[in-house]
């Protein structure tokens, strides 16, 4: 890891048993909890709490495939509040604005610790201001299954919203009124939690190709609705129309081409934001002009990649979560569109997909002179997101490209040192802005390939000076004194600490 990273581990974060906080532990090879006794039926959330004896101090987990449309986490939160349970630990794979009820539970001491990969909205605001008594432990999408499967994150009860469940307890996300597509982030919870509850609003006789195996399920609860699929789409999933974003995207596609990455059999991943999808659009045009076909795209899949698949420009899609309803529809009908688990996606101790990527296109809230990237907090230290798959894909891909405007909201995106390290600079290769492209000096191979390029190649220090010419040198905010969270790298290493905003 880069020497500029703050590795202070605050009190309240327990490192791996029998090891230092900076040493990872390989995952268990198998889950040893499969049952053949069948599952029980529950009648209500209250019945769930009674039958499973959910009590003070337990750890409950959830998945986020319905994103801001999920109802299940809130149902459980309401019951925790009603029973006034204390010192609960929640481990949702992500938290969205619709989960604002958790703020009250934190303030009342009902929930005192959170494990998650991403959090924004009122819950992120409350954690940033110290309303969570314990720490918010922020994993990556690959680090979360690693922690669960190794036993470092022990789950008492996994309460999983499943769009369709059959009489055998098998589950899928591809059908039902609450269909959300892939259920990749629920797989480790299913296999390794002490007890597993499927909460569904659609029961059928049999699922032909289930995503989740009923032999791991202890109980099934049927409710009126587990969520609103319209909430899956958060933010834009369309190509940007902003001229600056389009310029960055064109330069990025040209860069990838000059690096020899737009080739037969290419593999790629981009985010769902407007500029990232614009990069995919320009890469697609290059592929058409060259008459080439890619092997796969991966990650959170959007309708844009579904179109590339159906147009014959990609052989396969590997989908850990669907980012829009077109992707949800595709994964249930196209045999080349595969659901995958979070572990298969990015667990560093699994045979993962991210290690097979030729390139990945990612964003940044901040990036510093050592190429460390922050997508966890803003420049004042307020939590506004999290790694998700950012540092997983950055490490795995052959070339990692960060695309961003040089200046946003009159603030330079490049810093001398980022406020919070999400992805270490050793995993980041290129920064593309509208005013120039910086290559990480450690990638001498890329610099050699770009000799003679007409692209505006410069150093990251030169880009910082260009930004300062526009904005002036901003004052660096002071960190608070009380830790409220830790950033955990995909292998279990603590790489940064998040402090309370004073």
Concise synopsis of the structure shown:
The protein has 502 residues and is of the alpha/beta class. The strands form five sheets. A ten-stranded mixed beta sheet has the order 1-11-9-6-2-3-4-5-26-27. Strands 15-14-13-12-16-19-23-24-25 form a nine-stranded mixed beta sheet, sandwiched between helices.
Could you characterize the architecture of this molecule?
This protein has 502 residues and is an alpha/beta fold. The protein has a ten-stranded mixed sheet. Helix 3 (101-107) packs parallel to helix 4 (122-128) and helix 7 crosses helix 8 (274-290). The protein is globular.
Q: Report helical residue fraction.
A: 10-25%
Structural class: alpha/beta
Radius of gyration: 22 Å
Uncertain segments are: 15-24
Give me the secondary-structure topology.
Layout: E1 40-42, H1 45-51, E2 59-62, H2 72-83, E3 88-92, H3 101-107, E4 111-116, H4 122-128, E5 136-138, H5 143-150, E6 157-161, E7 164-166, E8 171-172, H6 187-192, E9 195-200, E10 203-204, E11 219-222, H7 243-258, E12 267-270, H8 274-290, E13 294-301, H9 303-310, E14 314-322, H10 325-331, E15 337-339, H11 342-346, E16 359-362, E17 366-368, E18 373-374, H12 390-396, E19 399-403, E20 407-408, E21 411-412, E22 414-415, E23 430-433, E24 436-439, H13 444-449, E25 457-458, H14 460-471, E26 483-488, E27 494-499
């Amino acid at each position: 890891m880069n020497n500029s990273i703050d590795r202070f581990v605050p009190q309240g974060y327990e490192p791996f048993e029998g090891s230092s906080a900076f040493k990872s532990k390989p995952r268990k090879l198998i889950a040893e909890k499969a049952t053949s006794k069948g599952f029980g039926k529950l009648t209500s959330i209250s019945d769930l709490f009674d039958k499973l004896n959910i009590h003070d101090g337990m750890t409950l987990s959830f998945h986020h495939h319905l994103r801001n449309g999920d109802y299940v986490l809130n149902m459980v939160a309401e019951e925790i509040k009603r029973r006034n349970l204390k010192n609960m630990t929640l481990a949702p794979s992500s938290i969205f604005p619709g989960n604002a009820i958790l703020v009250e539970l934190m303030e009342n001491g009902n929930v005192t610790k959170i494990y998650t990969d991403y959090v924004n909205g009122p819950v992120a605001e409350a954690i940033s201001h110290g309303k969570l008594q314990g720490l918010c432990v922020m994993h990556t999408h690959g680090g979360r299954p690693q922690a669960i499967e190794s036993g470092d994150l022990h789950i008492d009860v996994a309460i999983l919203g499943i769009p369709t469940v059959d009489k055998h307890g098998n589950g899928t996300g591809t059908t039902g009124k609450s269909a959300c597509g892939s259920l990749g982030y629920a797989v480790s919870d299913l296999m390794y939690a002490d007890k597993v509850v499927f909460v569904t609003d659609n029961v059928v006789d049999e699922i032909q190709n289930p995503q989740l195996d009923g032999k791991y399920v202890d109980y099934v609860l049927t409710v009126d609705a587990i969520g609103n699929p319209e909430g899956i789409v958060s933010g834009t999933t369309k190509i940007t129309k902003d001229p600056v974003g389009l310029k960055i995207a064109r330069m990025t596609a040209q860069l990838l081409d000059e690096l020899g990455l737009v080739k037969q059999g290419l593999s790629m991943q981009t985010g769902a934001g407007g500029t990232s999808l614009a990069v995919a659009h320009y890469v697609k045009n290059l592929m058409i002009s060259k008459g080439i076909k890619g092997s796969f795209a991966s990650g959170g899949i959007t309708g844009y990649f579904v179109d590339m698949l159906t147009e014959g420009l990609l052989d396969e899609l590997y989908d850990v979560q669907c980012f829009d309803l077109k992707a949800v529809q595709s994964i249930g009908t196209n045999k080349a569109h595969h659901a995958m688990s979070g572990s298969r996606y990015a667990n560093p101790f699994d045979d993962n997909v991210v290690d097979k990527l030729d390139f990945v296109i990612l964003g940044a809230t901040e990036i510093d002179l050592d190429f460390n990237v922050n997508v966890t907090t803003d420049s004042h230290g307020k939590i506004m997101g999290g790694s998700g798959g950012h540092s997983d894909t950055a490490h795995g891909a052959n070339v990692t490209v960060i695309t961003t405007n040089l200046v946003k909201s009159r603030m330079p995106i490049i810093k001398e040192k980022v406020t919070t390290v999400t992805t270490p600079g050793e995993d980041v290769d290129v920064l593309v802005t509208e005013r120039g492209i910086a290559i990480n000096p450690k990638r001498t191979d890329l610099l050699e390939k770009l000799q003679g390029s007409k692209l505006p190649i410069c150093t990251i220090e030169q880009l910082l000076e260009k930004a300062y010419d526009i904005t002036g040198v901003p004052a660096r905010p002071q960190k608070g004194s009380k830790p409220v969270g830790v950033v955990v790298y995909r292998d279990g290493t603590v790489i940064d600490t998040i402090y309370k905003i004073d």
